[in-house]
Automatic annotation (TrEMBL):
Protein name as it appears in the record: Transposase
Ranges of compositional bias, category Polar residues: 94-111
Tree of life domain: Bacteria
Record region (Disordered): 92-111
Species name: Marinobacterium rhizophilum
Length: 111
């Protein structure tokens, strides 16, 4: 009796659309623009915000993602349920990705 239930769950999991994962990009240089374009072309990830400390870049947009100050990272991560912070170096590859998770017991958000 348990096997048919597991079979239905597997079938429903395949039919259910995959959830898009949210990212925050640290920086707004050329490499970040390239990764933003590449990530948004796929369906698995979406860049929700860029982080830059220059005041003249604040609240501008790169594609559909706004630029915010570094002090806003935690609030943005909570708001968008971000799975990673991505930093790009040398215009080529992500230098570091830090995975975050929310704790259901105490409501705390840990990176």
């Amino acid at each position: 009796m348990n096997a048919p239930i597991q079979g239905w769950r597997r079938l429903l999991a395949r039919l259910r659309p995959q959830r898009t994962r949210s990212l925050i990009m640290l920086g707004i240089d050329t490499g970040c623009h390239r990764w933003h374009t590449a990530l948004n072309e796929g369906t698995g990830y979406r860049v929700r915000a860029f982080i830059d400390d220059e005041p003249w870049n604040h609240r501008t947009r790169i594609g559909d993602a706004p630029v915010h100050y570094p002090s806003e990272v935690l609030a943005l991560a909570l708001k968008h349920r971000v799975c990673a912070l991505v930093e790009v170096q040398d215009n080529a590859r992500p230098a570091s990705t830090q995975h975050c998770s929310a704790s259901s017991n105490d409501g705390e958000y840990r990176c």
